Amino acid sequence: MRFEEFVSARLAALMRYAVLLSGEREYARDIVQEVLARAMLKWHRIGAMEEPYGYVRRMVTNEFLSLLRRRRRVVTVPLEWAGEQRLTVEARPEADDEMWQVLGTLPRQQRAVIVLRYYEGLTDPEIAEVLRCRPATVRAYASRALSALRVELAPAGERKEVLS
Amino acid sequence: MNTLEELRLTLERHAGGPEDSVGIAQGAEVRAGSIRRRRRVAGSAVAAVLVVAAAVGVPVAVGRKSSEPPPASVVKPHYRDASQLSVAMVAGSQFVLTNRGGDGVGQFATIRNVGDIRSPRPGEAGLNGGAELLAYNPGEYDPARLKQGEQVTVAGHPAWFSTALTFTASNVVPEGVYPAVGWEESSGVWVLVYTSDDGWWGHEAEKKAELSEVAGDVRLPGVQDVGTPVQFGWVPQGLPVSYVSIRDLPGIDPDARIGFGKSVYPTMQDLASGWALSVTATPDTNRDWPTVKADLGAPETIGGRNVWYVPRPSPLNSSGSPTGADLVVETGNCLVYLSVPERDVIGEQDLKRMATEMTVGSCTDAKGWKPPVKG
């Protein structure tokens, strides 16, 4: 698969994923752009993989989780408050969604687990591979996050699935 | 209580829409080009160092790419060391320096309007938002292209306004051609004040006025040693400080980054990297730290502080050199990262000795910060 084909097919999905991870569109754009730039430079290897999306998604996750990267993101005001951006955000009535707000307060690893599990649909072993940790750690992150989100795990069938 | 279905729906609703992806592919292409150029510069610089060093047997400074090519032959009087800064805003200005730093070539700064910083909706009041700043040490900047622009007056001295200067990427600005106001100080320092605002095309007069207003408040009263929350009594191989970047404005989480030794990448911007050793000090208020800390395992104790030595690749540093390592020190209200790109060159014992001979001030209040290396 050529890089352009990958971007055409997968950019929107990567962006949705990054927005859910970061909770902030501009930050998500920053992450995805940086990752795609680095992926482009070694596309001869990534493009030959069976699942390039999985690899690039892992790059996005790592970029989001990297503690040292976060320091580079200067927390200052933008030069201009983009009118279009403001309208986009404010036009979404669910911006005050309580669960979304709580998601934003979760530690990043926990948030990543929630997004990978319930949005991307990955299994715990797959998430463990993305996060370079053990499946048991993934389950622990998920348990803590679901508790903070006050997600009721009943019915029993689903509780087993979540906490197994 | 909520249900899993509600969680899934929340995620679906808040995932970005197609409009969020606009321009990312193009931006990635530009960024990839920038990375390629950095690598080329790094490669040619390393080759030049090896060739010249072999020929004359002395260390040679690595070249850099600035926003404009340097003059062919100039005298470069000493103005400041890399660990000294001189850029400031005039007292009473509506603008402040939210981030500042420099290397052996010059200084950089982010200038923002106090009104925006205090506002919950920055920019909404229509204030002059500020600009970015570069200040080249004497002899480090060729003003020929700038002087092809329009001559203006800033704070009573001659200056030029240009819309044809190319700027490399920084922490807050992508690579691009941006409007700038520039002038020469009596010290020989060339100062460029520029903005990356995309909307400047067709609004040159407005941008010129805004940049001139910012530039009019910039002063370089004299060089001062920069203060950082950490001070080292020992540095491996006696590496000199070659780069500093600090945020010491009250009200914004302060932090500092220090580069030691020569960088093989272009610097004089807040995305600089590539030193033989770098140090980052940040407040420990990051809510992810407890989780990351748990994953790092039991710490060692050095000088009463918790310390973790983490070879890469690791969750601490996903984009750094995979042959590098980070030493994390938890101390007071600071997290201090000592990072090396080659752990075979500067190893675990070196970093631990640095940590042993390190004093740490506050990471929530910049008052009392000291020079990064004990004099």
UniProtKB/TrEMBL annotation, chain A:
Entry-linked SUPFAM superfamilies: Sigma2 domain of RNA polymerase sigma factors (SSF88946), Sigma3 and sigma4 domains of RNA polymerase sigma factors (SSF88659)
As one GO molecular function, the record gives:
DNA binding
Q: What is this protein called?
A: RNA polymerase
Q: Which family, according to UniProt? A: Belongs to the sigma-70 factor family. ECF subfamily.
> Per the database record, which ranges form the RNA polymerase sigma-70 region domain?
8-73
Tell me which UniProt keywords the record has, alphabetically.
DNA-binding, Sigma factor, Transcription, Transcription regulation
List, for all copies, the residue spans of the domain called RNA polymerase sigma factor 70 region 4 type. Answer: 98-149
One GO term (biological process)? DNA-templated transcription initiation
UniProt keyword Cell division, yes or no: no
Naturally occurring in which organism (per UniProt): Winogradskya consettensis
Entry-linked InterPro entries: RNA_pol_sigma-70-like, RNA_pol_sigma-70_dom, RNA_pol_sigma70_r2, RNA_pol_sigma70_r4_t2, RNA_pol_sigma_r2, RNA_pol_sigma_r3/r4-like, WH-like_DNA-bd_sf
Q: Superkingdom, according to UniProt?
A: Bacteria
From TrEMBL, chain B:
**Sorted UniProt keywords:** Membrane, Transmembrane, Transmembrane helix
What this protein is called in its record is: Uncharacterized protein
- Can you tell me where the transmembrane regions are? 41-62
Source organism of the structure: Winogradskya consettensis
